């Protein structure tokens, strides 16, 4: 018998059957509106909504393999700046005052539901110590997001972020990763000193084409907001890439059964058929 399933139907069925095996994501990992930036002075995208094509594809359940995908996030920066603490606060909601150096690399997987679609971030924690740098750098490849971290209470660590970013970018295709600059330990700084450091950091972020955030792993300030922003930007990028791939393409599946992916899936009233996927 010849199957009439489109690829979209097939992927949706597969996702639905997997859903029964996986518990629902926690409420604070559900993102329905585009999360806001930290400061408009160093922000990757100004917008309040997901791209019209992404919204439309999510509503029509035409999300390809995105719901099954894991996006890679790499966290880099000097030793002791608080990379592990930042990840632990977000993923486990814990904070440890004692310092334990990361040896090589470690990772966490965080599940989200964005615009109704399951989505995963694989967050790589890398060692800041020089002696582990060559192990850690082997894991930079394929990063959809690069987070460069510095300590707001130690200005030297900000100066080193450009080198960390350069090393991470060397392992990735130009323009393929979102870049964030994150100042940690916000609870330790205040007043004029904090404002001065933030101004310097914003200047660095602009030079690095990065979005800037200040956070505290100790108090949790801005940590969820920051990772929600990371997840939303990475998700939207994945969706747009997926839609670009599938637009009007004919896919050969199995023993030659030809399955057509809906050719006008990229057309929405807002987009017209000429819409540029890269334009948000
Ligand atoms: N007050 C305060 N201390 C923090 C914060 N984040 C981290 N720390 C402390 O800073 C020290 C270093 O934190 P880590 O998260 O281990 O630093 P790291 O960047 O992962 O260090 P490496 O693994 O060596 O690269 C620890 O003692 C943490 O408790 C924060 O937001 N506020």
UniProtKB/TrEMBL annotation:
Its cofactor is Mg(2+). It holds the Pfam family Ras. It is a lipid-anchor. Its main location: Golgi. Keywords: Golgi apparatus, GTP-binding, Hydrolase, Lipoprotein, Magnesium, Membrane, Metal-binding, Nucleotide-binding, Prenylation, Protein transport, Transport. GO terms for biological process: protein transport. Its EC number is 3.6.5.2. It catalyses: GTP + H2O = GDP + phosphate + H(+). It is found in: Golgi apparatus membrane. GO terms for cellular component: Golgi membrane. GO terms for molecular function: G protein activity; GTP binding; metal ion binding. Belongs to the small GTPase superfamily. Rab family. The small GTPases Rab are key regulators of intracellular membrane trafficking, from the formation of transport vesicles to their fusion with membranes. Rabs cycle between an inactive GDP-bound form and an active GTP-bound form that is able to recruit to membranes different sets of downstream effectors directly responsible for vesicle formation, movement, tethering and fusion. NCBIfam families: small_GTP. This is Ras-related protein Rab-36. The lineage of its organism: Eukaryota, Metazoa, Chordata, Craniata, Vertebrata.
